Each structure stands twice: as structure tokens, then as C-alpha cells.
């Protein structure tokens, strides 16, 4: 008997682009579950996050990258840039995301990072924001002169049909090889990592634009404890690291109200994500100027 099913395909796809173009939104839509965190605040995606999605015979392994920094060059930003370069060097396909109809010097800088030899799709996102569709064709013509893109894909990351169509487009760029992950795996990140990302997301959600993006979250303790009442129980201690006393007061809020909300929402989300009982304790510490201190950036886990 001959096997007529299509051969398995599997490969790495990097999603790159300047801050705020919608990379995290796209990744979440592609993976179908919230993995990388999103927020209206630029530069919230600091880690290289892998999302996995298996559709038909093809397994897509997505590598999200932090927003490429062009304005400042602190140690933190240097570390972010290194992550971007590391992520684009060893992939099968690059999705270069821009806002449809726009191309800024920051976009050009990201484009200049791409190594020759790797196919690049120009993903023109936020198509829903373009009111004059007729302007897109001449803009695509201009873009074609800037780089030898393999294909142009105008989409809205918020439109499910566009996102499904993108899978069909990407599939042919993945090499024929056996899958690396099980069909239902969505991320290879640890629960500890999910814990820090979840606290960080709530932190930014409840402080809005007041808190600088240099604030971070460190997990001091992540331990499973026996419990007679629950099938699984995890105790987590997290520290929110901010740069100034004023930021600390902002995070804690009047009478500790804001920190309490951050903690409650993070705990509830983690209980759902990990399907277990969670005890979460959050501290706030001031570390002035840590974004400028290379050694400290390393000690917080950004290589
Ligand atoms: N109208 C519209 N808004 C979008 C679309 N995709 C993303 N956005 C919004 O654009 C903002 C930035 O999206 P993110 O996904 O956080 O952007 P990012 O590129 O990951 O940003 P960094 O993490 O800073 O690199 C958010 O407010 C999204 O809701 C889209 O297709 N249409």
C-alpha cells in the first residue's frame, strides 16, 4: 500500500518589524491562543517567544522578536537588538511586518538587518486602517524597489480570515521534514516564564502609559506544593522592578489597591492557563538606572 498523505513540513518563521506594528497581535492570532503578551504600549515584547501551530501537514514554529530599537542605545536596547539579529539568522521564512501604506526610517532599519538568502514576505498589516485602498498598489510598487520580497500580503491581524490565508501562503516555504513538536503543542516556554509574562501584562494594563517600559518582573520562587484540597498547587513569588520611588508608589496605588488588582488578575489568569491552584505574592522594588547597567540586564535574563 502506498501512503498518499502529503509529506510533513516543519520550519521556523520569524516575525519582525519596528515596535507597535502588530507583531504580537499577529503571533497570537496565528497560534490561536495568547502566548506573547500585547499592549498598546510599545516595546513590551522583550523575550524571544516561540508559538507553535500545526495545520494539516505543516507545522509552523513562530519566533517573535522584540521591537527593534533605533532611538536609544542603553545596554537594554543593545540586548534587544542582539535578540532580533539572533532570531532572523536561522529561520526558513521572515514575515516583515509594516503598517500598510507606510514606510518609516525605523522600518528601513529593521529591513537592513535581514540576511540575504532567506525568503521575506512583506506583511502589510492594519489594512483596516487604510481608507483609500487605491493607494496600496502604488505603495506596494515602491516597496518592491526597496527589497526583493518573495510575496506581498496585505492583512489585518485582527481579521481571522486574513490570518488563516497567511498559513496557506507560508506553508510552501517550510522544508519537508518531520514535525518537531506534538500536534497540539502551542509553546515551548516554561510555566515560570508564563508567570512572569502574565504579571508583566497586568502591570502594564493597570498602569497604562504612566510606567516606563524599563520596569520588569522577576520570578523569585515557583514551587509546586502538596495540597490535600487541590490536584496541583503552585506558590509563586514575583518582584516588580521599577526605576524610581515614584514608580513604586504608582504600581502599589492608593492603599495598595492597584497592586492588589494586578495580583488578583494575574493569579486568576495563571490558574486558567496552568489548570491548578495558584498562590501569588508580588513585591515591588526600586533599582534605579538598571536599564543602563549591562551586568544587571544579564542578571534579569536578557542575554
Ligand atoms: N486597527 C488595527 N490595529 C491593530 C492591528 N494589529 C495590531 N493592532 C494594534 O496595534 C497595537 C500594537 O500591537 P502589538 O501586537 O502589541 O504590536 P508589536 O509590533 O508586537 O509591538 P512591540 O511589542 O512593541 O514590538 C495594538 O494596539 C494592537 O491592537 C490591525 O490589524 N488593525
UniProtKB/TrEMBL annotation:
Which UniProt key words apply to this protein? Cell membrane, Cytoplasm, GTP-binding, Membrane, Nucleotide-binding, Ribosome biogenesis, RNA-binding, rRNA-binding
Q: What is annotated about its quaternary structure and interactions? A: Monomer.
Q: Which HAMAP family match?
A: GTPase_Era
Single annotated GO MF: ribosomal small subunit binding
- Give membrane topology per the record: Peripheral membrane protein
Which protein family is it in?
Answer: Belongs to the TRAFAC class TrmE-Era-EngA-EngB-Septin-like GTPase superfamily. Era GTPase family.
Biological process annotations from GO: ribosomal small subunit assembly
- Top-level lineage group: Bacteria
Taxonomic classification, please? Bacteria, Pseudomonadati, Pseudomonadota, Betaproteobacteria, Burkholderiales
* Alphabetical list of InterPro entries matching this protein: G_ERA_dom, GTP-bd, GTPase_Era-like, KH_dom-like_a/b, KH_dom_type_2, KH_sf_prok-type, P-loop_NTPase, Small_GTP-bd
- A Pfam family: KH_2
Query: One GO cellular component from the entry?
Result: plasma membrane
Stretch list, region G1: 17-24
Q: Where is this region: G3?
A: 64-67
KH type-2 domain: residues covered: 231-288
Q: Where is this region: G4?
A: 125-128
Q: Does the keyword Membrane apply?
A: yes
Q: Report the PANTHER family cross-referenced here.
A: GTPASE ERA, GTPASE ERA, MITOCHONDRIAL
User: In UniProt terms, what function does this protein have?
Assistant: An essential GTPase that binds both GDP and GTP, with rapid nucleotide exchange. Plays a role in 16S rRNA processing and 30S ribosomal subunit biogenesis and possibly also in cell cycle regulation and energy metabolism.
Q: Binding of GTP: at which residues?
A: 17-24, 64-68, 125-128
Location of region: G5: 155-157
Task: List, for all copies, the residue spans of the domain called Era-type G.
Answer: 9-176
According to UniProt, the name of this protein is GTPase Era
| Organism of derivation | Caenimonas aquaedulcis
Q: Where is this region: G2?
A: 43-47
Compartments, as annotated in UniProt: Cytoplasm; Cell membrane
Amino acid at each position: 500500500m502506498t501512503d498518499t498523505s502529503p509529506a510533513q513540513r516543519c520550519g521556523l518563521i520569524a516575525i519582525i518589524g519596528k515596535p507597535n506594528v502588530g507583531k504580537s497581535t499577529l503571533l497570537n492570532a496565528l497560534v490561536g491562543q495568547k502566548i506573547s503578551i500585547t499592549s498598546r504600549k510599545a516595546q513590551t515584547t522583550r523575550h524571544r517567544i516561540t508559538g507553535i501551530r500545526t495545520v494539516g501537514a505543516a507545522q509552523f514554529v513562530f519566533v517573535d522578536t522584540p521591537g527593534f530599537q533605533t532611538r536609544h542605545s542603553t545596554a537594554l536596547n543593545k540586548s534587544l537588538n542582539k535578540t532580533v539579529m539572533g532570531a532572523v539568522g536561522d529561520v526558513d521564512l521572515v514575515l516583515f511586518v509594516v503598517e500598510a501604506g507606510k514606510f518609516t526610517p525605523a522600518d528601513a532599519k529593521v529591513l537592513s538587518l535581514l540576511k540575504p538568502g532567506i525568503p521575506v514576505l512583506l506583511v502589510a498589516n492594519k489594512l483596516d486602517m487604510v481608507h483609500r485602498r487605491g493607494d496600496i498598489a502604488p505603495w506596494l510598487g515602491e516597496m518592491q524597489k526597496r527589497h526583493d520580497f518573495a510575496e506581498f500580503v496585505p492583512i489585518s491581524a485582527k481579521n481571522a480570515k486574513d490570518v488563516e490565508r497567511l498559513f496557506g501562503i507560508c506553508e510552501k516555504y517550510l522544508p519537508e521534514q518531520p514535525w518537531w513538536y506534538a500536534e497540539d503543542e502551542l509553546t515551548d516556554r516554561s510555566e515560570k516564564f508564563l508567570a512572569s509574562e502574565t504579571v508583566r501584562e497586568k502591570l502594564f494594563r493597570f498602569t497604562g502609559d504612566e510606567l516606563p517600559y524599563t520596569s520588569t518582573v522577576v520570578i523569585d520562587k515557583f514551587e509546586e506544593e502538596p495540597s490535600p484540597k487541590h490536584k496541583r498547587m503552585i506558590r509563586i513569588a514575583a518582584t516588580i522592578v521599577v526605576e524610581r520611588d515614584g514608580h513604586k508608589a504608582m504600581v502599589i496605588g492608593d492603599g495598595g489597591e492597584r497592586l492588589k488588582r494586578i495580583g488578583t488578575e494575574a493569579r486568576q489568569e495563571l490558574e486558567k492557563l496552568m489548570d491548578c491552584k495558584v498562590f501569588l505574592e508580588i513585591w515591588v522594588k526600586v533599582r534605579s538606572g538598571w536599564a543602563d547597567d549591562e551586568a544587571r540586564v544579564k542578571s534579569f535574563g536578557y542575554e
